[in-house]
Amino acid sequence: xxxxxxxxxxLLDIEGTxxxxxxxxxxxxxxxxxxxxxxxxxxxxxxxxxxxQLREEHAxxxxxxxxPPPLTSDPDSVATYVHWLIDRDRxxxxxxxLQGKIWREGYTNGTLKSQVYDDVRPAFERWTxxxxxxxxxxxxxxQQLLFAHTDHGDLTTFISDYFDTNVxxxxxxxxxxxxxxxxxxxxxxxxxxxxxxxxxxxxxxxxMQTRLSIRPGNPPQPDPKRFxxxxxxxxx
Length: 236
Fold this sequence. Notes:
8 helices
């Protein structure tokens, strides 16, 4: 049965909600790993902010005893640390910013084409009149690129805004309050859909409506019945 829509806004996670997790991990992450060193060499003068954020993160890793690989100014050293972060699926702003720029090159030259579930575009078309926004740990640039180059066409015309970890961690209720403020909507008028229960817990604490996305390939979640479950956006 199709559920009634929230009053004014829908906030969507990407991995496991609009896009198969396998595409992000097997295609995008692999592409970033393979091209990061060359990108660092070719665009060294354009990456000062990203490198500075990586250095700050590396220092924190050393402080907490995470045993990261050494980090110097050499591109091979930076690439090795980036690989280390990717292997840990680290949600760091510096890493995500750098990955987004590498992916931009891949989308631009036609190497990359992003995947979304078949029900995404029809849902976007059905939700005309609502704010549709994205909240992902990937950078805003990476989000925009993904939805601009999908196997179902350019979907960016449907999306009102994009949010990344610059608004805060995805497991922090305050992040969702900030997003509601930026959407200029009360939290209870926003429906957040994600495949991760810790994110749904944070959104619920902020006052948002929530749905748990269960798709093929999504990792199992602890006590999923605490949330209303959907298997496709056709249910919204």
